[in-house]
Design a protein that fits this description.
Blueprint (H helix, E strand, L loop, with lengths): L2 E5 L5 H14 L1 H10 L3 H14 L4 E8 L2 E13 L4 E11 L8 H15 L5 E2 L7 H9 L15
Parallel strand pairs: 4-5
Antiparallel strand pairs: 1-2, 2-3, 3-4
């Protein structure tokens, strides 16, 4: 079945919530780092989705559907890069419905996202993955991401 993708609107917020809740509550690599983020659970997820809807200038949730069912999503937040002299995108929370991994859904999600961002004038996409998540790292490299030899750090204020 073909995969269709779109930016989350209020009508799809429930789909995004279900996919992201499953990822944030079960992904071993996210859970290993979540204490550093001061993870706020489902309440924080609901607030974040509302913020994406009310402030699209800050980013969006990208959803993939197959036969009308949400099967994957990711989050894009915008930033200004002094090295690129342009707006760049930060890719986060890439998740495919459990049991659907390895079926090309993630590839369809990322390929369509790259096209959407290019059409919007975005010059670069930055992402990160857990140091032990070799499968995610290989996925990103296959899709053109290059290792930066840096480690992501977080400071909760």
């Amino acid at each position: 079945m073909p995969i269709s993708t779109k930016v989350m609107t209020e009508a799809e917020a429930g789909d995004a919530f279900r996919l992201l809740r499953a990822f944030l509550s079960t992904d071993e690599h996210y859970l290993d780092s979540s204490a550093a983020y001061s993870d706020g659970g489902q309440e924080a997820l609901s607030i974040a989705l509302a913020l994406f809807l009310s402030h699209p200038e800050l980013g969006f949730v990208w959803l993939a559907y197959e036969s009308g069912a949400a099967v994957a999503c990711c989050v894009i937040s915008y930033a200004i890069s002094t090295s690129a002299g342009a707006v760049v995108a930060k890719l986060d929370d890439v998740s495919v419905m459990p049991g659907r991994e390895g079926q090309g859904i993630g590839t369809a999600l990322i390929d369509s996202l790259k096209a959407e961002l290019r059409n919007s004038g975005i010059k670069r996409v930055d992402t990160s993955c857990h140091l032990d998540n070799l499968r995610a790292r290989a996925f990103y490299v296959r899709h053109g991401f290059r290792p930066l030899n840096e480690e992501r750090l977080a400071l909760v204020l």
